[in-house]
UniProtKB/TrEMBL annotation:
Keyword Zinc assigned: no
Molecular function GO labels: purine nucleosidase activity
One GO cellular component term noted in the UniProt record for this chain: cytosol
Protein name per UniProt: Inosine/uridine-preferring nucleoside hydrolase domain-containing protein
Keyword set includes Endoplasmic reticulum: no
Any Gene Ontology biological process: purine nucleoside catabolic process
A Pfam family that the UniProt record links to this protein: IU_nuc_hydro
Coiled coil: none
SUPFAM superfamilies, per database record: Nucleoside hydrolase
Recorded superkingdom: Bacteria
UniProt keywords, alphabetically: Glycosidase, Hydrolase
Residue ranges annotated for the Inosine/uridine-preferring nucleoside hydrolase domain, each copy included: 5-286
Length: 304
């Protein structure tokens, strides 16, 4: 059985759009909804365009603030896709989340954005329960990560700023402590900074890229991106999405999260139902990314 997933995204970074395309048609996923922050009409128009090209126009789209005038689309999106018509969302993001969870109670929420939409769900819908939240965010330091798995840029650190959590610290702390979030799996920057979609990765994807419409869109997007930036793009959100699909791509540690001086850290703990990534199986990640890993058509089980 495929997994029901909702993707909560922003569009300041290209990898959210890549993740949207990946999830839209992944063989192990049924994408049930997309929520956007802040959710301008330009952002919603881009999301609807990609969903249509992936053959998933029926997927509802929610926005936190569709009247926002903030310039929220990165230049990459318009260079890749050209000028797109703005569009209205189906409803406010927290309403889309609540309705989706009511209809599909086993849904996994994958967040690749600051956590306003999740915070508003918890604040405004006291009946809502989230079985599983997979977040791109958080940080696991040297107290958790074995020396052989540490990235040089984070060597010696126990805490670090993390964009998605610092974009709404109140929302992050609420989601990390709420009993209505039954399981939390944090795919942290000590792992997501370790894999780039570069020319070599692109060539590995090439034989697979027509497998699904969504993967073809990812490949098309990166054809454009790599012409300007051949060093590639770190795969923050796609790694989190793949960990939602197959938790076995990551080694997890159960932790208690904390925030100090604007930075986030984690301490080993038991009974928190909060897990953080401490290592990544890059080969298993790649095969999950392209949708050819064994067993993907039967779904995946969360870490114990």
């Amino acid at each position: 059985m495929r997994q029901d997933i909702v993707f909560d995204m922003e569009t300041g970074d290209p990898d959210d759009a890549l993740t949207l395309c990946l999830l839209a048609t992944h063989p192990a996923v049924v994408l049930r909804a997309v929520t956007v922050t802040p959710g301008t009409r330009a952002q919603v128009g881009m999301v609807r365009h990609l969903l249509a090209r992936a053959g998933r126009s029926e997927v509802p789209v929610g926005a936190r603030n569709p009247e926002s005038e903030k310039e929220s689309l990165s230049a990459f999106h318009t260079k890749w896709l050209g000028a797109l018509a703005p569009a209205a969302p189906d409803a406010l993001a927290h309403e889309v989340l609540a309705a989706t969870l009511q209809q599909y109670p086993e849904t996994t929420l994958v967040t690749g954005a600051p956590l306003q939409n999740l915070r508003l769900l918890l604040e405004q819908h006291p009946e809502a329960r989230l079985r599983r939240w997979v977040a791109q965010g958080g940080f696991a330091g040297d107290n958790l990560v074995a020396p052989e798995h540490r990235l040089a840029k984070f060597e010696g650190k126990r805490t670090c700023p993390t964009f998605n959590f610092n974009g709404d610290p109140k929302g992050a702390l609420l989601a990390l402590s709420s009993e209505r979030v039954e399981r939390r799996e944090l795919v942290s920057k000590n792992v997501t900074h370790g894999v780039a979609y570069d020319e070599a990765f692109h060539e590995r994807v090439r034989p697979h890229h027509t497998r699904t419409a969504g993967l073809a869109l990812v490949f098309e997007a990166m054809e454009h991106y790599l012409k300007a930036k051949p060093e590639g793009k770190l795969l923050h959100d796609p790694i989190a999405a793949c960990a939602a699909i197959d938790p076995g791509i990551v080694t997890w540690a159960e932790v208690e999260m904390y925030r100090a001086r604007g930075e986030w850290g984690a301490e080993p703990a038991h009974g928190t139902q909060t897990f953080i990534s401490v290592a990544l199986d890059r080969e298993r990640f790649f095969h999950t990314f392209v949708g050819d890993a064994p067993g993907l058509d039967t779904g995946a089980v969360s870490p114990a």
